[in-house]
Amino acid sequence: MKVLLNVNHVEHEIDVEPRLTLLDALRDNMRLTGVHTGCEHGVCGACTVLIDGAPARACLIFAVQADGLAIGTIEGLAPAPGELSLIQDAFCETHGMQCGYCTPGMILTAHALLRENPSPSREKIVAAISGNICRCTGYGQIIEAIELAARRLAGSNAGDAA
Amino acid sequence: MNAPRAFRYISTDRRVREDRRFVVGKGKYIADIAAEAMLHVALVPSQHAAARIVSIDASRALALPGVHGVVDGAELAAACEPLMNGLDTPHVQRYPLAVGATRYMGEWVAAVVAETRAIAEDAAERVDIVYEALPHVIDAEEAYKSSSTPVHPAHGSNVLLDRVFNWGDVDEHFAASDSQLSLRVTWGRNATVPIETFGVLAQWDPWGAVLDVNASIQMPKYADQIARALRLPMNGVRVHYDVDVGGSYGVKRGIKHSVLTGYLARKLNRPVRLLEDRLENMRSGDAHGPERIFDIDVAFNSDGVINSMKMRALDNAGAYAGRAPFQLGKPIGAIVGPYRIKSVHYHAISVTTNKAVEEAVRGFGQSPTNYAIEAMVDRVAEAVGVDRIEVRRRNLIRSDEFPYLIPSGTRYDSGDYHTVVDKVLTHVNWPELVAERDRLRDEGLMAGIGVAACLEPSGGNSSFEPLLNPKNTTTTWMESCRINIDALGDINVAIHTTSSGQGHETLVATAVGEALEIDPARIRVTRPDSLSSLPGNSPVGSRMAIMLGGAAFKAAEKLKDKFRAIGAHRFGCAVDAVNYCDGNLSHGEQSLKWLDVVAIAHRHFHELPPGAEPGLEASFIMQTPTGEALPTPDGRVQMYPCHSFEFHIVLVVIDPELGKPDLRRYVIGHDCGVVINPHIVKGMTLGGIAHGIGAALLEEFVYDADGQMMSQSFMDYLLPSASEIPHVEIVHHCTPSPLTVFGQKGSGESGYLGAPAAVSGAINDAVRALGIRFEKLPIRTTAISDAIAEAKLKGRLP
């Protein structure tokens, strides 16, 4: 089936089997390998992408269902080659990762959270990332990264988490 | 005791360089590596705990368009050597696919190769296998009986290891003690379950006769094992180390996957990739951790001083031997924990059962052992009626007793346990914490405090190998580093392993920068493949800060010696009269800048000292600081060189209606000597605690009596989310190791080694008033609520 995917503001027309997940379409058909395969049953959050701005599991949606939706992946966050978004930089500052495998999903979740709520409490941050499993960090430095990003956003008057 | 030195880059607040590629989604994981014309593998799993394979008919699968082949165990057994066993158990043979019989539910019976993974999965459902069910054994105690059905009939029994050690005058110490008590605790089968499953891509070059392997691997002797199994020379296997591994914590040892994929790539003459899906990973990936029953007798005085311990540890290794039984050996190097226990009787038993195969998990058996020791200390405190912390204090090794020789032959390098305990108690305001617990109890909640003290042996040698397998005489477990300063004076450092989140590029850049007095940001770190690498043993056993950091520092010191020799030749002075500072050389009024030395080394042979090689390159292959001697005949050995200390305090609150434990406060005192990168060590510790909380409360691979695995998805095998993990406060202390270049010790397993004991202790403190005692991990909410309900029925509510 032909499907028109709008990924990071660029439209791609691809031909897929109806059973192909959005996750596999992004990774295999479009070579956007920043989105990661974790459990393929919607629990771990490694495959998190943004759909119309909200975090979603790319493993639980077929590519054909995403036709016409605005999809955001980690590849769309950095402002320019070699640069980092404010949130990406905050994750580097606090070392909010180890192996990096859950990191793209975690950052996209943080991105959506801070866009909706620029100064979330610790409880709100925990609730927001509780659908993204990290086996390395115990979450402490991830929470610190999001808190740091929120503080810097407030200071920067950027008005946009990107 | 040596005090921590002053450092330029070591221990300073510096970013972790690997993070930059991860935050933009540019990590290079195995699933991101694709080869032209690559084929994909899906596996056919056994549905039986034990069965004879009567027939395998792949014709319907092969008829599917896009399918390139189906292989089974019989074909592999004819073409390959069996996978390596740790122990001397030649009749417990393991191949990547079941040969003749299947020995656990989920075991791979056949592999299907196709154009896409989807086609391979479709075809796997069309492989028709006829089984004849056989008797099975699931329980370790049952398997240990001589009457049990052997999982490997050729081996004659289920016993892989049955070894008794007596270190010291156990009988005498028992007789001389005021009291003794016995306890049994059980460590449930869990694992690290990384979010990335295991994957491997193999390509065979038939003209060059080289097998290229990319894999999400964390394993010592990986290339060696592939070469042996596939009957290739080791220089015919090229393992690529520049693969980012998406978490491992011990388990990413996919040797069966790799041998299978390598075989398929050669047979089909196409690149072949095997990526486990989550189901394959959990039930068939051979990546479960220890499952262990401890029976302990302990002899102590009425003041709580522990004199001697008898420990029987029975481990359920699963269906094949692998390296798992060694996980009973490594804890021998810290068998008394941080305590002055004078003698130990240790009975280590490993049995086969019809469960998935056990593999290395963070701590290599130490966390279960620490849990057992700490449960024992809590019981002694209860028996003598002395506060749990006071009992620990009375038994902890004192700082003036190091280096301290424990009964099993290992010398602990350094420690200051009492100070760490005091710092934690001050930080947490112990009297206030106790008052808080009691206030919560007054409010009708169940509240408890857990305490655990334990060690993290680090700097992994492999002394448990010769200890448990007399045919294995390994006494080195080296690690290597190579530095090359190029013609423009820029620094390139090569390391020879994959990493799974430990930040090794940051580690070696920091160590080399420290030695050369050059900003680590200017140092490039690369990972040559195994054919271009110096020998190493991968990041296991909390060893890389010590071993890779040590090798990097020593290689840099060799380079500085070359610098000084060049300077001495120019200055006309003795080598040791040349001053090295910030990369520049001086002697009195004379000086040579960094780039001057580079120019001499790379372009001006006529200015080099006689006999000097041109260029600026140095390599160092580092022996572990200990472990060079074979074990004594009575089973004493120097296990790992360095010993980090941790002291945990946890406050837990349980709602008596729900039974759900809520960790209200978590404090850890941590002493891993000199910290090289504070962010990395902090992350390891917090992550280890989260992993330990999972082991204590949530995670278990459960099998039913028929050998069917009941927890095959993340709906049943529960991983802690941010909601389950409390904010953790870390209290730092630094007791340098005298055995390492900076005074560093290991920290890769920190947190995990004490958290299960601490959390278990907290829950038991909370429910003690009901007469409940939990002696098996994990302590799931259902177990707590059931026990509370039963206590209510019996009228035991306070």
Describe this structure in words.
The complex is a heterodimer of chains A (162) and B (798). By secondary structure, chain A is α+β, with helices and mostly antiparallel strands. Chain A folds into 2 domains: 75 residues, Ubiquitin-like (UB roll) (Roll); 71 residues, [2Fe-2S]-binding domain (DNA polymerase, domain 1, Orthogonal Bundle), CATH 1.10.150.120. Chain A is 35% helix and 14% strand. Chain A is built from 5 helices and 5 strands. Chain A is globular and about 45 Å long. The N and C termini of chain A lie far apart (34 Å). Chain B has 798 residues and is an alpha+beta fold. Chain B has 3 domains: 152 residues, 2-Layer Sandwich (Aldehyde Oxidoreductase, domain 4); 187 residues, Aldehyde oxidase/xanthine dehydrogenase, a/b hammerhead (Aldehyde Oxidoreductase, domain 3), CATH 3.90.1170.50; 336 residues, Aldehyde oxidase/xanthine dehydrogenase, molybdopterin binding domain (Aldehyde Oxidoreductase, domain 4), CATH 3.30.365.10. Chain B is built from 20 helices and 29 strands. In chain B, α10 packs across α11 and α10 packs parallel to α19. The radius of gyration of chain B is 27 Å and the shape is globular. The chains are: A alpha+beta (162), B alpha+beta (798). The interface between A and B is large, with 57 and 57 residues.
